[in-house]
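Quick question, first post here. What does this chain look like in 3D?
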Amino acid sequence: MSHTFDAGVSNQHATYANLLRENSGPEVSPDLDISPKNARILLVDDKPELLSSLAQLVSLHEYPVVEALGGRAALDALQSESFDVVLLDLIMPEVSGHDVLDWVADHDIGAKVVVVSGDSSFSGVKHALTCGAFDFVKKPFEPTELLATVAKALAHRRLEQSHEAMEQRLQESEERHRFIVNNSPDLIYMLDRNGCFNFINDRIESLLGYQKAELMGKHYAELVYEEDLEEAKNLFNERRTGGRATHNVELRLKSRLPRDADRPFQTQNVWMELTAEGVYSDPQERTRENFIGTYGTARDISERKEAQQVINFQAYHDLLTHLPNRALLKDRLSLAIAQARRSKRRLAVMFLDLDRFKLVNDTLGHTMGDRLLKAVANRLQGCLRRGDTLSRFGGDEFTLLLPEIRTRDDVAVIAGKILDKLATPFVIDTHELFVGASIGIAMYPEAGDSVEALVQSADIAMYDAKSRGKNAYQFFSEEMNQKFSTRLSLERELRNALTSGELRVFYQPQVRVDDGRIIGVEALVRWQHPKRGLISPDEFLPVAVETGLITQLDEWVQAHAFAEIAEWRRAGYGDVRLSVNMTAHQLEQEGFLDRFIGAVESSGLTPESIKLELTENTIMQDIEVIVPKLQRLRKCGLTIAIDDFGTGYSSLSYLQQFPVNTLKIDRSFVGDIRADQGDASIINAIVAMARGLNLDLIAEGVETKSQLRYLRSQGCEEVQGFYFSRPLPASELKQLLRSQPYVELIKRGEEPAVPA
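> Answer (accepted):
Ran it through. Tokens below.
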């Protein structure tokens, strides 16, 4: 047989492959790798010499071969290795070629089996092919025929492997695609030409609460919110493609999922952003006949919509009470004025300012104050008619718009109802809280015919009601306007007074009761008006507080007093102590501590010569901010006194936390001391409290000898008041410091001559 293996062997494989591509089976791609070196051929025969001869033939054509002597060896080889082609003899003892074919078929072996056998009977060939043989070559064979068959079998094996690899890649690609689609945050769907679902991804279950199976074959209208169905007709089952197709259009879909209690703006419908386009059997021919259906995606934008609603709500509503705010009230009032003008009807605007709210807020804290405001808002809403608007104007102020009012009496009834509702105490936690309201009422068109005029008139009327004793209502009148103008003028002139040198610092002496010596002075502001003369602080200090000028005023008084007391000390008037008043406005200012301590040091005074007087309510206004600042001031050496003690709400537990040295008994309690009564129980309690806490005592407003005697008997160390002296300008106060006139008077028990 060797003469058949000579010249041209190296070209025969290519020739056989080309013949195979031209004349056999499925078309073989030119890129298909059928080179012998990458093939694995199993040769099976029970005769060693034939097996060796076959191996030489195949090996000479560069095919790697494995020899199996008999059927049993073939099965062992097939179990341990993979082969592309098997050349198999049929007639073998023990395990025949037919047994091997059966085993290959049972175990789904991919190798192509070419039967090489002397049994060429029809039944033998038929049985071999029926059992899965790829081809049959009769012994003795022509080498070219055998090699061509091997090449053909190898090509088919490579083609199958290529198809298998492609199917595997397609399967993996489909699985990846299915994973991406089903795990997409967007809803992905396909509709048939009738608008019914033929595909929808898993997102439908978590997004809207529907099962995929129940929607398949159903019309898209099953999902669309009823009010959006008309718009959805041209969007959901889009037929256009490209740039003309639907992009990012908003509509609502029905949801079966329960609402989230923490999302107040959530609805039972889900806002979606839809993008869709038509699908055609021939993309180049977009005709009605070629239309297959619609492909689309829908993105959940409900949180964005809710955020927009929240932003819109916040723009026109108060965040605490959820009532309309100033902007929305003005918008509705403008509309109500236009309607009243057309219909020649009247309307009313009420401006409500809560009485005693500040006391609650300062004493019990801002959190309790906020809860009280919400409770007040809820109670006020119970007084409204349909069509009325209640708004929170700011702070503890509310405004009420009452359209379509017939008479003033109708408004008075509503105002009275509001006052009655607020008269019932509010119970929050364990606190029983009382608030009232001062109500100003402006009628259209008498009190104004514009939004600004009506609100301002109601505001002026409210201030008038407050000035008459609070917890009342007043209708606007022109006389009130004059009073308001005067107040505005006072504010303007006070601002000017701060820069034009019209303010003065007066001093009231503080006397030690056991020997009558003036040991301190309290700095008090006075206004020397160029036209009106000396104006009482009772008249201008409330305006300063309301306008925020109080901080500037306090700082001016303190700086002026520091400089004067330092000068007195240098001039030999003694180590007199200076008491200055301080408000929460000043304490809460950023950088207050550095500015205040800097002002003391730059004046030449020592911190030990300064006493700060604050009311209980000042400290309670913001304990977390104010108390640490007071602690630092006390650590620097300043003395801290609680002014008007007993008039606030502070408890003993709070008092123990405050960095306080002194309690100042309010003048109202001192005024209750009469010559014919044996004691004053409130003063006794304050004295006992001060002793228990190891605090100093000073009483203000002392005007009679009996008051002085009683306070001295109770252990009060210092006093101030008209019994000794009114507040005096610096020049007069220096004379008292020089002469110390109260020392001999206290010794003799005589009454001092009070300066005019």
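The longest strand covers residues 269-280.
The mean pLDDT is 85.
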